[in-house]
Write a structure and sequence with these properties.
The complex is a heterodimer of chains A (about 350) and B (about 400). With about 350 residues, chain A is α+β, with helices and mostly antiparallel strands. Helix content of chain A is about 35%, strand content about 35%. In chain A, strands 1, 2, 3, 4, 5, 6, 7, 8, 9 and 10 form a ten-stranded antiparallel beta sheet that branches. In chain A, a hairpin with a 3-residue loop joins β2 and β3. The longest helix of chain B is centred in the N-terminal third of the chain and has 13 residues. The chains are: A alpha+beta (about 350), B mainly beta (about 400). At the A-B interface, β1, β2, β3, β4 and β8 of A face α1, β12, β13, β14 and β15 of B.
């Protein structure tokens, strides 16, 4: 059985190949494509020797989008019935080719069909299609477009195929991740929970620090037409006001220098537009504040510095190389939000 | 002035001025190519009833068609955008009705959390228009409007009626370029965004009940749009409370879908003088999304007591079209009273959904942070869910 086709056995074959070819054409006309293949399977011994039967089988495969099978049949027709003309066309330059070589054959039609079918296969390739397979379809499509042009096939049809190939090539390129570097400047604000511990009783008092500053940094990104992934870091210099959340201690300090570093991975969806991006970022934040201990002998800070993890929901609006970014999120276990408003420059 | 502002405030303002690009209810729709409010509204500076074209746009370009049968043609959806889902039967009268309700959760997550539902607006309106190109127009709106929170439980509340008119005017538009309007209208200043609690509207005192009787001159061509408004206060108010003065706004179109603008306002009554200046920008992006930005300075001089103050505000908002009918917004607002070192920044992510013609649903989350030089205070979180229906 050819190409692993199943045999339904629901067709009645005629006695002669000519009658069976007429029957195949009838099934094609009625769009009963499975019957074309069933009939071929049933009478393969006689029909495989007839180019008219093979041509109808190939058309049936093509209409059912079984492009690989259709290609195999057209190749078989060329090798079995037009081999010498095909070889002469291959070995002769376009300018020296005498049209008499192919005018009495259907080679221009078969070349166009092979170009069309390979273009279809290439256009339907996805990320999961092996690279060599994609490359083969593309190479074959381009090759048969060249051969079709050599045998003076309709230029409009060939141009259409070339456009389809180019469209797919461009679409694949858009999906390829391209790396890039960027720098960023943000106004950043967050709140820190600072804990003051009574050295004698170990009693803890919660202090709340509200900081705002600028964060300078940059990162590397990988983007295609659908997503952008990045990893970035920035160094923050901020000023904070800190005060006690409890009335037990009167602790207030303003303009306290707080330094920090934020780094982490992020991603954006380009679902809405190439220039309007929405996404998430996971910052790991290190900060150290110069808040003053009210009395070194009585108190100590539980931690001088802290490493915390959080999240940002972020949006980015791109205008050429400059983007405007807003981010709102939180760093655990701190109260309040972590937000930033800034600009990005793409190198 | 600059010396008094902290570094972060300067960087904040500089950043948004550098990167980003007026006055109406949905100025964000510049993203759809609608630069001027008069394209969709009877009032040349927006707000109030929308015209036939605006109704069709809201139904077929702004609203989702998720609740419509796939086979329903857009022009039929557009035809059903008229009053009570019908096409107008005459060319002179256009009735309109609008309701806005707000579910508000203040300070959520805190002991002081409070939940309430506010009927913000329930209006009926009639527009009458006559003459060639509707050059004579009148618009009268009447309905329910809650007593402003600032006046509740004060003697001033007695003078405010819950059923009143927020807008009524007559207009003459001899050409598409020029128009003159007289009556009770919003003052022409800044970007007339729908968020009336925005610092950009509360600071210059231009919120939902701050309309005034006056005359407005409107000029509009593709490159320039401008308005001048002279007003004598809301004549339903006691004489000493009426804010009298003038306001003007000017916008210049830059590269088709961007507008840069300047506004000025000077007004006063027996108790207070207010002078304000604002610069703004609106920019349409490539897929129906937009950016708006406004920065302003407001000087307030009480007449009976000491306490002059200068306030600054900035409002940045991106409006991202997710899909037809769905918009994601993020507002970043800044407010500072120059007399003290503290200032506030409010972050407000929102989702705006127009499920079908005549329906808008909106969810806003506001995170307000006070940058106080004395004490550090916890953030305030407010949640708002709004419904807006119109006929």
């Amino acid at each position: 059985m050819l190409l692993g086709l199943s045999f339904a056995g629901n067709v009645t074959a005629a006695d002669s190949p000519v009658e069976n070819i007429k029957l195949m054409q009838l099934y094609l006309d009625k769009n009963q494509l499975e019957k074309v293949e069933d009939l071929y399977d049933e009478e393969e011994d006689s029909l495989s020797k007839n180019w008219m039967a093979l041509e109808r089988l190939a058309i049936s495969f093509e209409r059912r989008e079984k492009f690989k099978e259709a290609i195999e049949i057209y190749r078989k027709i060329i090798i079995n019935f037009n081999k010498s003309e095909h070889e002469r066309i291959l070995s002769t330059s376009a300018s020296a080719l005498d049209s008499a070589v192919y005018e009495k054959t259907k080679l221009p039609f078969y070349y166009y069909k092979l170009a069309f079918l390979n273009t279809q296969l290439f256009s339907k390739t996805t990320d999961y299609t092996p690279a060599n397979e994609r490359s083969t379809y593309k190479k074959n499509a381009e090759g048969f477009i060249g051969l079709s042009r050599k045998v003076k096939a309709d230029e409009g049809d060939l141009k259409l195929l070339e456009d389809l190939l180019q469209e797919k090539i461009a679409s694949d390129e858009r999906l390829e991740y391209k790396p890039g570097w960027y720098s960023s400047i943000d106004i950043l604000s967050w709140q820190d929970r600072v804990i003051l511990v009574d050295r004698a009783t170990s009693a803890k008092t919660n202090l709340l620090s509200t900081a705002i500053g600028t964060c300078l940094g940059g990162g590397k990104k990988w983007e295609n037409s659908k997503y952008e992934f990045d990893i970035e870091g920035c160094f923050a210099v901020a000023s904070a006001t800190i005060s006690s959340e409890s009335r037990a201690i009167d602790y207030r300090q303003s303009s306290v220098s707080v330094k920090g570093f934020l780094a982490g991975p992020g991603m954006y969806f380009k679902t809405f537009s190439d220039n309007v991006l929405l996404g998430v970022h996971v910052p790991v934040k290190y900060r150290k504040g110069d808040w003053t201990n009210p009395n070194d002998t009585l108190y100590r800070f539980e931690k001088d510095s802290a490493v915390e993890v959080g999240y940002f929901i972020q949006s980015k609006i791109k205008v050429k190389k400059i983007s405007l970014r807003t981010r709102l999120g939180k760093v655990f276990p701190n109260p309040g939000s972590l937000w930033s408003l800034g600009a990005i420059y793409d190198f | 002035m600059l010396k008094k502002l902290p570094l972060q405030s300067l960087i904040f303002s500089a950043l948004v001025v550098f990167v980003s690009p007026k006055a109406m209810a949905y100025p964000n729709f510049i993203g759809h190519g609608y630069n001027s409010c008069i394209t969709c509204h009877y009032n040349p500076f927006g707000n109030g009833p929308i015209n036939d074209y605006g109704r069709a746009v809201s139904a077929t370009a702004i609203g989702s068609r998720g609740f419509y049968n796939d086979s329903k043609p857009e022009d039929l959806i557009g035809q059903e955008s008229g009053f009570f889902f019908k096409q107008p039967t005459n060319k002179h009268f256009r009735p309109f009705a609008s309701y806005r309700g707000l579910f508000l959760k203040r300070n959520f997550g805190e002991v002081s959390e409070k939940t309430e539902y506010i009927h913000m607006q329930a209006d009926v309106n009639m527009v009458a228009k006559f003459g060639e190109n509707d050059k004579f127009i009148s618009s009268v709106t009447f309905g329910y409007a809650p007593i402003p929170r600032s006046l509740q439980n004060t003697p001033a509340a007695d003078s405010v009626k819950e059923y009143r008119t927020r807008e009524h005017y007559v207009g003459y538009r001899p050409s598409p370029t020029w128009g003159v309007y007289a009556g009770l209208m919003d003052k022409t200043f800044g970007i007339r965004i729908v968020e009336h609690t925005s610092y950009a509207r509360t600071t210059p005192q231009l919120t939902m009940d701050d309309q005034s009787h006056g005359v407005t001159l409107h000029y509009n061509n593709p490159a320039i749009e401008a308005g001048m408004n002279v007003f004598v206060g809301n004549l339903t108010q006691d004489t000493e409370l009426r804010m009298k003065g003038w306001a003007g706004t000017f916008e210049y179109t830059l590269l088709e879908k961007n507008r840069l603008g300047l506004s000025i306002l000077t007004q006063g009554n027996d108790f207070l003088d207010v002078n304000a200046f604002a610069a703004h920008a609106r920019s349409g992006l490539d897929n129906g999304s937009s950016l708006i930005f406004e920065v302003g300075r407001v000087q307030k001089k009480p007449k009976l007591v000491a306490g002059d103050k200068t306030e600054y505000y900035a409002n940045f908002q991106n409006h991202i079209k997710a899909t037809r009918g769905v918009y994601l917004l993020n507002s970043v607002e800044y407010y500072k009273n120059a007399s003290d070192k503290s200032y506030r920044v409010r972050f407000g992510p929102s989702v705006q959904y127009f499920p079908m013609s005549k329906v808008e649903l909106r969810l806003d989350l506001y995170n307000t942070r006070n940058f106080n030089q004395e004490i550090s205070v916890k953030d305030r979180w407010d949640l708002m869910a709004q419904i807006h229906l119109w006929l």
